[in-house]
Amino acid sequence: MLVANKELTNDVWPEVYASRQTRSVLTWPVTGVEKHNDQLCLVVTQDQIKGIIPLEVSGINLIGDGQMIKNRVMGLIGQPVSFIVTKIDKENDLFVGDRAAAMKAQSERLWETIKPEQVRQVIVRRIIRQRNQEGNLSLKGMFVELEGVECFIPAHEISHAWIEDISTIPQPGDVVEAYVQKVEPENQRIFLSLKALTEDPWPAAVKKYVKNSIYVGTVNGVADYGIFVSLEPGINALCHHMKSGRVNKGDRVAVAITKVDPEERKISGAITRVLRRQ
Fold this sequence. Notes:
Layout: H1 13-22, E1 26-36, E2 39-46, E3 49-54, H2 66-75, E4 80-89, E5 94-98, H3 99-113, E6 119-131, E7 137-146, E8 149-154, E9 175-184, E10 189-193, H4 202-208, E11 214-223, E12 226-232, E13 235-240, E14 252-261, E15 266-276
Parallel strand pairs: 3-5, 13-15
Antiparallel strand pairs: 1-2, 1-4, 2-3, 4-5, 6-7, 6-9, 7-8, 9-10, 11-12, 11-14, 12-13, 14-15
């Protein structure tokens, strides 16, 4: 039986009851997924106390087929989520939480205070990849949660460098700082950047890499229209395909710089020789 008042015997129960009575927001980790009344529920736990968040109030996008929705549910395992306690079953050491209500309360407060040029903490929720023209998976961006508002950060705003290995970027569940570029309350959109909080390598690169000079780099991408060579983190040269022979990702090569365009932030070049095969 669900009750609203019972003797408190665990340290975390006071905050659970406080959330039930005052609708305060709690943040606990998702530790599993269970079925209750034939409905998927997120499981949150803290100090042996267990709560469930039914799918209908989980704040998860329910648009799509069953497998897509299930993947979104499973993707939250191990991540912290906010919720408001709505029911308590102390006899079974169980409560029911509402994440959608917590996100709504958080977002209402956020829209009152969010402004461009602020630095805010976000939780990485999902990393999105898509197949490119060559059929390979490439990073499209990531979804993050900012105080109840889901935001998408495109790949070009995650890092100055070309991201080949997604394990080098923040992972789902990580809490990181993001720079607020633009706010559109009327469209409920917030534009964020991670790379804006890191040093831009381009000002130095413009002086460092000189036209008609040759530099060592590493091939980090091969496409139909050219070869990407990393000269340093965040600085790539786009080179024409070699007239004879071919290169692969990871090969060390010598690149002759043919053009440096500071405004377009692009360097063009030609591979003169392969120094070491991967």
